[in-house]
Amino acid sequence: MKKNEKKGTKQIQESKLERFPNRTTKRDYTIEFTCPEFTCLCPKTGFPDFATIFIRYNPDKWCVELKSLKLYINKFRDQGVFHEDVTNIIADDLINLLDPKEIEVVADFNVRGNIHTIIKVVHSKSSSKK
């Protein structure tokens, strides 16, 4: 760790999404997360964008480990990325990690320039096989 580097900064930079086996496969159920402190940077201006990220999924064989999700979400704070892209990146990363039965990722961005943006990505195993 560099002299002035904080422990949390290092954890965020080195983080990877992790999963663990779903131990309740006898029934379908839903897992929901709210991430109210999401930040990234506008790739055009460099100004910060703030959002609440909502993640809802029906697990199949895997569940996401919460600390890894927290650190992963915080990785975006210094990245220049469009709202549409970041929502799809989060969805794709979770789909690739978990292969859930269904997943929905919603990014509800704070008003900027008199425009309120909400991006929603929905994916299900049945719709991906078409």
Molecular structure report:
With 130 residues, the chain is of the alpha+beta class. The chain has one domain (30-128): GTP cyclohydrolase I, C-terminal domain/NADPH-dependent 7-cyano-7-deazaguanine reductase, N-terminal domain (GTP Cyclohydrolase I, domain 2), CATH 3.30.1130. 28% of the residues lie in helices and 33% in strands. The chain is built from 4 helices and 6 strands. Strands 2-3-5-6 form a 4-stranded antiparallel beta sheet. The chain has a two-stranded antiparallel ribbon with strand order 1-4. It is globular and about 45 Å long. The mean pLDDT is 93.
Structural key phrases:
4-stranded antiparallel beta sheet; GTP Cyclohydrolase I, domain 2; 28% helix; two-stranded antiparallel ribbon; globular; alpha+beta; 130 residues
Question: What topology does this entry show?
Answer:
Layout (H helix, E strand, L loop, with lengths): L6 H8 L4 E3 L9 E11 L6 E11 L3 E3 L1 H9 L8 H16 L3 E8 L8 E7 H4 L2
Antiparallel strand pairs: 1-4, 2-3, 3-5, 5-6
